[in-house]
Amino acid sequence: MTEFIPGVGAGSLLRSELLADGRSTRIGAIHQIDYSQAVVLTHDRWKFDAGGIPQFSFLLATAQDVNDPRVDDDEVLLLRVEGTAPLSLERDLHAVREESLRTALSNNQDPSPSAVLDAELDPFTKNRVSFTGVRCKILGTFYEDDVDGQKVLEFGADVDNFYATSTYRVLKPIGDGLATIASYLKPTGRPVERVRIGAVRYSATRRRAKTSKQADAAAEVNIRDFIGNKTALLGMTRMGKSNTAKIIIARTFVVSERQRATGGHPIGQLIFDPQGEYANPNTQDGTEIAAIGANHVRIFKFGADGTQPHVKPLNINFFSENQIDAVQGLISDTLSSDESGYVKDFAGTSYADVPGDRSATTHAQRARLVLYGALMRAGFAVPTNFRVRINIGGAFQQKIVTGIAGGVAGLGRNPFTQAGGSANFVTVAAADVEDVVDKIVELRDAGDADATNFTKDVRWKSVEPIFTTRSGNRSVRGWRNLNPLRPFHSPATRNDPAIEIYEELVRGRIVIVDLHVGAEAVTKALSESITRRLLSKQTEVFTSGQEPPHIQVMLEEAHNLFSSDRYKDDLDVWVKLAKEASKLNLGMTYATQEVSGVAHQVKANTANWVVAHLNNTTEVRELAKFYDFGAFSDAIIASEDRGYVRLKTLSSPYIVPVQIDRYDIALVNEARAAAGDPPLTLNGTAP
């Protein structure tokens, strides 16, 4: 190889990394060149020997002049093949070919195509017609630079000079040379931790790449590019988006555990799993994220019975005081279709106790009394031995007791039980809650001053229509709207799952919210409730002047979350996540098959792009607005191979076509090793 590049120093990085034997092979020369495009002159024989030149291949062009050692050729142009180009003599050569066929047809006694078209050209003519032109885009320039006293390989995304075409030699990178190009990372100031994500793949047809042993040039990325940034996984269903997500999750876990081991802060990862493919093994991978280990992965799912410590119930206890914020959020979402004024009041009011504010706590307790009564009317299962705390004056207590005893046959007992040093602090048993609320409303409507004072707070007023199904002078659905929320409820749940999830994330665990069981409306509202709590907690830390913990969020079906219309609503929880993620140290990976369905602002702030097969021009046209994905438009539509993607990361200066590796037991064991756990065997058990 050295004789082809005499101007490049034998000990230079350009030669050792890109141009040395075994790293590149000569395939032609520059025919035409300008600052953005080049036409490469090559020959059928050279293409065959190089294992072919597929579309989108990387090529290298180096200038030299064997007669002038002063030539400035210590740089190498990086080209990408985009198509074919006519040569200056190509029309004449076509004429020669045509004339030879005419002559063969006239002189041959057998005029059949098999006889005429296979007529041998003379060797000189055959050689001349075997030259072809390859149209290439110039991606930029590799060159050497001194950084802190060391030689490094640098890349500039343009051309600062070019020479006469006769001075250029063109080579096809192979093996480690191709891996160097595919894995090149530009300096970003971020920590660098290289990991393999796949192998370079130029085309759907891989026969020549495999036979020439050019099908496994590693494509590496800086996994830290994905931490704290937005990543788009784009492609049709079953094209490998989830497989790529699992690789990113496992590699991020390794970084997290290494940081933990050196005294740094771990990285939590929250995965919303609508299909159950992250929590459960599938036939494609043979393993799952949860295989990383019960000590490191928490699964929240409906119906969890507590027999597995790492699998926790996703249900909320609607009668738990410490879960009232989550209850309010879910009810507010459910009531949002009702345009009555009480709905807005309910959504905008807090029903939690306020430490240090006795009045606010008293009114919150009274409002919860009404809310629990509404839940009971809606058929929510009541926890065993459930009682409602309330502060109510003694005289008013007696009015209620008297009213209930006289108006409800057979009751005849006091619904209040003293709960504190003062007679005003009492509890109400579950069986008496509805009767007590009914009697308070009845007394108020009859003009009783104590009842009027008791119900005057906005908290009570916003909840009462849910219990009574009356708002002002008209009927409303009230508690009937709560029926779809019963699947959310479990009387056995002790803590708000959203709080538990956040605490697990802060500890650096992977949290999988398994949503594949449950009605869509239920899982949607629950996902929003969890995300709302995540944002609230991170904001609390941020506004206190501290650094929020690093947390990664994985979302499927992003077109439903970040649509252009939805992005206009600043109160939408997913919009808030997209807009505020960066400052709150929230990285976000979103997957969708509808590129056009995601708001432009979200895509414009996306750092990493993994693009698999898309099946229509509308989506590809939208994609073409970013970087130079437009050059791959036809191939993205045509190639339906799973895991075959075009990859652009924050640290990569150009798009690389990649076959993504398969998430398997080896990656699981790499993650387990980082956490100090023994490896799993092929059957998923530890030896």
Give the oligomeric state of the chains in this entry, treating copies of one chain as homo and distinct chains as hetero: single chain
Residue fraction in strands: 15-25%
Integer-rounded radius of gyration = 34 Å
Distance between the termini: 50 Å
- Low-pLDDT windows of residues: 1-7
Tally of DSSP helical segments: 22
Average pLDDT:
85
Strand count, sense and barrel status of the largest sheet are:
12 strands, mixed
Helix content: 25-40%
How does the overall form come out from the CA principal axes?
A: elongated
Computed structural class: alpha/beta
How many individual β-strands?
A: 24
**Neighbour order of strands in the largest sheet:** 9-8-24-23-22-10-21-20-11-19-12-13
Report on the structure:
By secondary structure, the chain is of the alpha/beta class. The protein contains 22 helices and 24 strands. A twelve-stranded mixed beta sheet has the order 9-8-24-23-22-10-21-20-11-19-12-13, sandwiched between helices. Strands 1-2-5-4-3-7 form a six-stranded antiparallel β-barrel. A hairpin with a 7-residue loop joins strand 23 and strand 24 (656-660). The chain is elongated. The chain starts with 12 loop residues before the first helix and ends in a 13-residue tail after the last helix.
